[in-house]
TrEMBL record:
<dbReference type="Pfam" id="PF25954">
    <property type="entry name" value="Beta-barrel_RND_2"/>
</dbReference>
<feature type="coiled-coil region">
    <location>
        <begin position="109"/>
        <end position="167"/>
    </location>
</feature>
<keyword id="KW-0175">Coiled coil</keyword>
<dbReference type="Pfam" id="PF25973">
    <property type="entry name" value="BSH_CzcB"/>
</dbReference>
<dbReference type="InterPro" id="IPR058647">
    <property type="entry name" value="BSH_CzcB-like"/>
</dbReference>
<dbReference type="GO" id="GO:0015562">
    <property type="term" value="F:efflux transmembrane transporter activity"/>
</dbReference>
<protein>
    <submittedName>
        <fullName>RND family efflux transporter MFP subunit</fullName>
    </submittedName>
</protein>
<feature type="domain" description="CusB-like beta-barrel">
    <location>
        <begin position="211"/>
        <end position="279"/>
    </location>
</feature>
<dbReference type="InterPro" id="IPR006143">
    <property type="entry name" value="RND_pump_MFP"/>
</dbReference>
<comment type="similarity">
    <text>Belongs to the membrane fusion protein (MFP) (TC 8.A.1) family.</text>
</comment>
<dbReference type="InterPro" id="IPR058792">
    <property type="entry name" value="Beta-barrel_RND_2"/>
</dbReference>
<feature type="domain" description="CzcB-like barrel-sandwich hybrid">
    <location>
        <begin position="63"/>
        <end position="191"/>
    </location>
</feature>
<dbReference type="GO" id="GO:1990281">
    <property type="term" value="C:efflux pump complex"/>
</dbReference>
Amino acid sequence: MKTYTYIIALIAVSIFTTSCGSDEKKVDVDRTSPIAVTVSAIQTNQNNPFVTASGKIQAKNSADLSTRSMGYVNSIPVNVGDQVRKGQLLIAINNADLQAKSAQVDASITEATAAFNNAEKDYNRFQNLFADNSASQKEMDDMTANFEMAKARLEAANQMKNEVNSQFAYSNIKAPFSGIVTSKNIEVGDMANPGMPLISVEAPGLFEVLAMIPENEISEIKTGTDVNVTVKSINKTVTGKVTEVSTSAKHTGGQYLVKVVLNKTEAPLLSGMFATVQFPVAKKASASSMILIPTSALVTRGQLTGVYTTSQSGTAVLRWLRLGRTYGDMVEVLSGLTENESYIVTAEAKLFNGAKISIQ
């Protein structure tokens, strides 16, 4: 009986193994089917003989408005995209505590004013008495001190009133200039905290570009230089002028900040658009070409970033990269790819290292 049990067990294991082997073989067949992919050649900037830099367009006049007082938002009479005029109310914050403090200050001013008027009358009367030798020097000194203290208390009360009035300005956020509301970061009923950006306003029509220049080219960039600025998203090229050139890269990762103010144009520019600034300065001979690939082609595995390339045997090869600066939807490759290689842009199925591919 025991012998039959072992034989049945061995038959069951054999059937299970055969079944698993069949599934594994099926998976291998599926994985060896070529995956249709599209590839692209490496792009470099070596065809342009001039110094170029990528940057982002922003409004020359823009403001992120916040408050110095804490309170609940009572109303927001504007929406994103609305045109506002200078001094228009944008956000009203509950200021009941300020109103109570203002009433207390008004009462203090009334009391200090009455005390000052009495002290002034006494001071004037004692001045006459002292002139007629009817009051002593000490009495005159005491009256003078009382008058000066009353005057100081009234001045302090008036300054406190000015402080309260300035706090009222922070509970009623108003437009600092005429423009367009570009963002709203709070809703009615929310708690507004000091320093928290609540609403943003931009003045349309005048834009600037902030670009970063490498150290080997920054010495050639001068203020007042006329430049061409290409905005790829709208396929337009506009002109501008260099207005600021940074002399320090301490906080910008070795890149120097250059500000370009754009000339007025009919092109539909918007804040946040990426642009390429071309300076009328020839590249230095030692400057190496830059390899750029689209960010959509990148593959991320934990802390590593790479891209799939093609091998001579028709398989996908995952290549790890060291990346540099980002230019819009493109990123600079510092190492991992060379100029004579191509990479996979899209695939009809999920790629893996060593997968057979069919280039479309």
